[in-house]
Amino acid sequence: GFFSVASDMSHRKFEAPRHGSLGFLPRKRCVRHRGKVKKFPKDDASKPVHLTAFMGYKAGMTHICRDVDKPGSKIHKKEVVEAVSIVETPPMVAVGVVGYIETPRGLRSLATVWAGHLNDEVKRRFYKNWYRSKKKAFTQYVKKYADEKKAITDDLARIKKHCTVVRLLAHTQIRKVGLRNKKAHLMEIQINGGSVADKVDFAYGQFEKQFSVDSVFSQDEMIDVIGITRGKGYEGVVKRFGITRLPRKTHRGLRKVGCIGAWHPSRVSWTVARTGQLGYHHRTEINKKVFRIGKGITAENKVVPNNASTDFDLTEKSITPMGGFPHYGEVKEDFMIIKGGIAGAKKRVITLRKSLLKQSSRSALEKITLKFIDTSSKFGHGRFQTYEEKRKFFGVTKKSAAQE
To answer: Which of 47, 159, 252, 343 counts the most CB atoms within 10 A of its CB?
Structure first.
């Protein structure tokens, strides 16, 4: 009896969960730079017509202070400081509509209708080299709008008659963000709610118009963030899969896999950790809470310099920290404050999607009241929240005296 028990049990050092998930293989460089929505939320015809996604640009991170509202928890009614990400989300422009029919092999696009006028920033997306091109994109298509729009209305009628899924073609206004890039990012945003005819009418009514992020998402909502992670190049197995290092005395290096497989089968299994590309992978992170949707500095034709102040901290300050966001600059357009980190480098385009799940947890339903948003410099020790505060602390300096 003793031996049978002993043989079933193994020593602790021979048993462990594997290192690194196999669900994310192959760990290759992603083909696309923009996060792709692989699944949209389930459609419910009883709800009003609404959009399900948006795009923004990652500006950087800061921290906030808030009171927690979780009865029974040890931190109930206590202040917590949490890390947040800032995503700049200038209004997007609707430029088309696509209708899909369901086939046994999945969705198939039946018809696409484009708007009559497209901005140059989205036309650039159809060219590799804009300044050398003849810029002929959509010059023929525009003629469809000339003779009483018959071709356009026919296509819209076909979508209404046959399609089950309707998606809006919309692009970002990348020139409003201070990046070098001039090509707008174009995506399909699924329209949910209402009948198919309602969806098509809604999309056609949006053509060439802007829609802002607060028309898609609201504060305290749980959303999903889709993006491409930061590339780290060719990495070893310790960093790439988190395997344990070998002992110090190991011959020919110790950041290796001790044995990459048995003699037979005489090939290396795909489950064995190997060196290779790490980062620049497509990832979807679910359940990120929206702490605030802020208006741009010049929203609705009036200057809003205090879009980072709260009811508790009445200092007039904008969301951009002193000295700007490192590697990004100033946030002048609408923005979103999202709890936690976000995949990708600064300036990278981020796709924001409505949650696929019915949110019922306590943290999902919690109402967020921000007490303080940090705007001190992110480039150094950051002692001051505003230039005014810094000036008061230092008093008259040589520099300030010379300026006056």
So the answer is: 159
d(Cα 387, Cα 403) in Å, to the nearest integer? 15
Q: How far apart are CA 318 and CA 88, in angstroms?
A: 13
Choose the weakest-confidence range: 35-49, 199-213, 287-301: 287-301
| Residue 46: DSSP 8-state | T
Orientation angle between helical segments 196-206 and 150-162, nearest 10 degrees: 150
What DSSP assignment string belongs to 180-191? S--PPPEEEEEE
pLDDT in tens, 104-120: 999 999 999 999 999 99
Of 50-64, 116-130, 303-317, which gets the smallest average pLDDT? Answer: 303-317
Is residue 112 a contact partner of residue 158, using CB atoms and an 8 Å limit? Answer: no
Please report the pLDDT score of residue 399 as a whole number. 84
Q: What is the pLDDT of residue 146?
A: 87
| Among the listed residues 177, 170, 207, the one whose alpha carbon sits nearest the alpha carbon of residue 296 | 177
What are the tokens at 202?
């809604």
**Amino acid making up residue 138:** F
Phi and psi for 25 in degrees, rounded to 5? -75, 150
Is residue 265 reached through a cis peptide bond, with omega within 30 degrees of 0 on the bond before it?
A: yes
Tell whether the torsion through CA atoms of 37, 38, 41 and 44 is positive or negative. Answer: positive
- Residue 324, burial from CB neighbour count under 10 angstroms (0-12, 13-18, 19+): middle
How many other C-beta atoms lie within 10 A of the C-beta of residue 291?
Answer: 21
Residue 291 C-beta-side C-alpha neighbours within 13 Å = 25
Render pLDDT for 207-228 as a digit per residue (tens, 0 to 9). 999 999 999 999 999 999 999 9
Quick one: residue 323, left, alpha or beta (phi over 0 = left, psi -120 to 50 = alpha)?
left
Dihedral in degrees, nearest 10, Cα atoms 47, 51, 91, 39? 150
Phi, psi of 60 (to 5 degrees): 155, -165
Structure tokens at 220: 């305290």
Give how far Cα 60 sits from Cα of 76, 96, 271, 354, 377, Å: 29, 31, 36, 22, 12
Percent of the chain with pLDDT over 90: 87
Name the residue among 401, 376, 403 with its Cα closest to residue 387: 376
